[in-house]
Sequence to fold (1332 residues):
Amino acid sequence: MSPEALMSWIIFTPTLFAFGLIFFDKKAEEPMRYWSLCGTAVTFLQTLLLACSFSPEDAGIQHMVKVPWIENWHINYQVGFDGISLPLVLLTSFVSLLSMMASWSIKKQVKGYLVLFLLLETGMLGVFLSLDFFLFYVFWEVMLLPMYFLIGIWGGPRREYAAIKFFLYTLAGSVLMLIAILMFYFGSAPEGQIGSFDLMQLTAMAEKGDVFSPGLQVAAFILLFIGFAIKVPCFPFHTWLPDAHVEAPTPISMILAGVLLKMGGYGIIRIAFPLCPYGAQYAAYVLVAIGVTSIIYGGFAALAQTDFKRLVAYSSVSHMGYVLLGIAVWKISESNGAAVGRDYWLMGMNGAVFQMLAHGISSPAMFFMVGVIYDRVHHRDINQFGGLSGLMPLYSGLAAGIFFAGLGLPGMCGFIGEVFVVLSAWNFSKTLAIVSASGVIITAGYILWCLQRVYLGPEYKGPHLDEIKANPLTTRETFIGATFLAFCIFFGVFPNYVFDMTGKSMEKLVQGLDTGYQNTQRLTGGVQTTQTTQKQN
Amino acid sequence: MEHLGEKLAALLAIAWLLPLLGFTIEVFGGYWGARNCKKAAYIAIGCIAAGFVCSSTALYLWGSETGWVALESASHGGHDEHSSATDDAHTAGDHGGHDHAATVVEHHHKQTVFSGCFYRLAKFGSLNLSLDWYIDSLTLTMFVMVTLIATCIHIFAVGYMHEELTDDYVDHQVHTHDGCHFHRPGRFYRFFSYLSLFCFAMLGLVLAGNIFQVFIFWELVGICSYLLIGFYVERHSASTAANKAFIVNRVGDFGFIIGLMILWTSFGTFSFADQHAADGKVQPGLFSMVRGSDGKLEATDGIVVLKTQQDEHGHWQVPPDSSQRKTIAYTLLIVAGLGVFCGCVGKSAQFPLQTWLPDAMEGPTPVSALVHSATMVAAGVYLAGRFYPMFTPEVLLTIAYIGCITAFVAATIAIVATDIKKVLAYSTISQLGYMMLALGVGGWGAGLFHLITHAFFKSLMFLCSGSVIAGCHHEQEMPKMGGLLRKMPITALTMLIGVVAIAGLAIPGTSIALSGYHSKDAILATALAYTKLNSVHFLLFLIPLLTAGITAFYMFRLWFYTFLGKPRDQHLHEHVHESPLVMTVPLLVLSVFAAGCAIGGEEGVLFRMLTHSQPGHVAQGFNGLAAQTVSLPSHDAIHKVHSTAGSAALLAAFCGMTIAYLVYGLGLVNPEEIKKQARAVHAFLANKWGFDDLYDTLFVKPAHVVAKFAAAFDKLVFDEILHTVVRFAVVISKWDRKFDEGVIDGFVNLVGNSTYSLGIGLRGVQTGRIRQYVTFIAVSVVTLFVLLFAFYPKG
Fold:
């Protein structure tokens, strides 16, 4: 199968399998689960095939498909991938597969759950593969509804609140994005002609610098950034996350942490920055400051939590702060607007993508580990655990390994992303770099303290001790945990496999942004106040 | 010569990776072996012993291939000794001139430093990060030392940990809620798997070829230390100590990262050595960039220009073309050095981050011997030594003072400690302070010399204390011991060797002494020479000298207290027994090394071996030209004051020993009396100078407050804003409904209703009678015409 066709197959295979579920009897739960597992597995294999057709030397979009969809408005069905989206596509299908395995713990209305799950996967893959702004928006929304129902129906006690909160936040972001889409659509049109939704065309226009005025770029960037920052989530748009995570069932938390948060980062890298290089540079210092605040604030908030899942959720806020930090360390020379120390920015960008990948592995794993114990004891109060290492040694060993990955231990994936990003930050701003580096202390604090209260100690302090003893770790659970841990270690030891993939595309992107900013400034004179943001360094 | 480097790298890589292999097998020991199975230990010992064989082979290869050049040339002397070095070169090469330059060239022919790359982690434009190796005599010596001591400790641990070889281990220190002792399956295999993992991390740290890689393994030894301190996971004190160790280390690492950021941004490389690219180009490493080939660090107007270009002799020079120059501000270089040193402060438990090490004694005693005295905590000193060329005189001065304070503070606390392991822990901190001091005052060789000798005698003493603890059924308090000499003679005597070694005793007038004397002597000599050059910093000699006396006092106190006198706990004493061979043989082996590893002192094999790797600029010393900068003594200067310093040190040590003998050996003075007399001082020391309380109030509690604040801020501010917005929206929609129902619907209804009523009203008109309709029409037409004529504009 050609890679071009394969991409569409990848996007719609989960939908086909979801359609197939209609023919199952409502009571045939086990077959339906296996059927859906097949669906995610087939999708995963297809993404692996797609990765085989990837050539790392090619920086641009590979195997692009462009079919007219709504011709009057120049909307196309346009998909393709490069070194930035491919790792995230792989991550999506991988996390979906493992979350589907973790979905055996769902007992209620299995059929509906599985259908929504598969639709969600289509939406996620579509977002990462689409290259048409309108199509991107459609997939973005496609993802939203299944998620709303998955939290709202299969969630915990406060599920309605969490689902609506999630929905409202995301919708607000979508609306802002929609405004930006229209701004670019009409902004890209010469007098009396039809504009474009083609992200590649828009990127090229932004790079030329004479199409989008600085004012438009700044305004559009703010809209897009808020839209994506809600998804990341960055301080101060993050409060939907702890609620959504706490109430969502375990597999959905895994998807949420593993994939949905990455869409924010991906959107910033793929859309917000390339389309408005001027706006991005204009806001760079604020972005870095927001990233650093997220790291520290999320870490402190995690330290104070007593709900196990909430702690992991806040750790996500903290870890995703590194992503924003890495993306935004774009320092320019005041005289000509060229990037200063571009290699460090390149490193930050690569580190950010790596961090997304690393967090996409370690965070779902952490949620899964919380889910395993929650399934047995039905509570998540950290202070009512203890002694699990004696009761469930294998589980505790896996969990400790995975939490160490979250702690940023060298040799595991979290380390590479965090350290690369932090190392790249000094070039941008010394103060913010130092603050971001202090995150290592807080992270160690909350993770180790949590490990101590949950896993160490002589005996278990909470209810349902009998259930822990009656249900040792199943083979399925062991497999999921061990797979996650293995990947945590693999990417920590051999990060070069990821950087080989992202390297060229990222270089092209950074190059394009650099010229885009310089062109915009040269051709339009820029906005007068630009320089003030750069004074800090 | 190149393939010698490859060979060495292969051998050391095997020694490095074998323990990792061992770890991956042993960690699953619960699955493939019974709880009483010792196989895991055998695998661990096999791995580390094989590592020792590989390291020794590498050392031998290195020596024989380089013609043992390290041992021949006494590089510690100044210019006067260069003639002898030249003679050696004469025999080795065929055209050795008698001038200085020729000596250097000859030296270069014998390549003794090797570096290379294992694999690349990432490449961004011109930036390159990889896992490298860097092998010189320091690396090799460290490898041999670590693997040798680790092997001894592994074997010792088989005996020490044998109680874990059971399905039902009773932990007497942990109580369940019903008041019983805690029962659990033994974890013998797990202990050895952690040890193996630690050996892997530690050897990786030593082998690392760039500072980033050092940082990677730095953290890994940290996590191994965490796992080993918290080995008894059920004990709250153990898990808390483990957390404390890791987090305090992270505080140091915070500084380390800042140092790394500066280096990375200013230099664009982390590599120690120059790197040979595939296309034949050579990229300068950190040391070359800062020091060039002549070892001089020059700053003009606070800017250091990096030496990034090679001249035709292969020397690194400042590029003549100023547009190609790379520069770093001198202050930034200082900050970078301090940052990296901050990491060393954490790892080596230096003031002010020393508090974690005594708590770390919660781990099993072999761990204390291996991790928390001989190897991991010495890694900070090792790194400070390895990174020496990057340190400016200002940084060195800081290092010296930190080391000096640490040595003194820890020694004073050791006087009042009663837990046998805690005494040794404080003594470790104190000795690490000595090493740092030595590095800081320009005694590169002396500091690392002490590192090696200390590793041997301190691991020996820890193992002895382990033997005592095992013999006394896990009693660690010295006041309950006493008179153990008869019961456990081997332990007592080997311990005595360690004590004499650390106290630095020697037979006056001769050079017959144990290892500690030589290394401590070297340190004090350097410190004395230093204070002669910089008289402001006279404390850097006096305090260490005083500390040498204190050291002798508390170490002999420990020995007399434990092994001599009358048994203070008769019940305990009756059950004491000497340890089995598996534990005493490692003691004997280590005691041989503790006694003899430094034979010959600064003319001996070990010291020469180490100083062969000494950075080129150290031997000549450094003359601070301006008044405010410090000077470093040259080797000549040190040599001149050697005998003075040696006598002073010896005198201090004898004083300390004598007092200890009078108080604890003969019992002339009752220590309880002294305690009563100086209660405040005792309380202050026993409270460890109050550091723990201070940090608790300064950092730990505020951190929790900030955390609570952050969590509450989310709930009370962000969520509240959201809720207000939502409530507002609900209120608006309610108004909207009212408006809809009242105004809009009202209007629509009004229209509808009036239309309807109009219709109803007009219904009466619709009668169906034609005559009436015609009348209406006629009247209407007439009316219309009248209106038309009345209002239509004329014309």
Q: What stands out?
A: Residues 405-686 of chain B form one domain. The first strand of chain B starts at residue 114 and ends at 124.
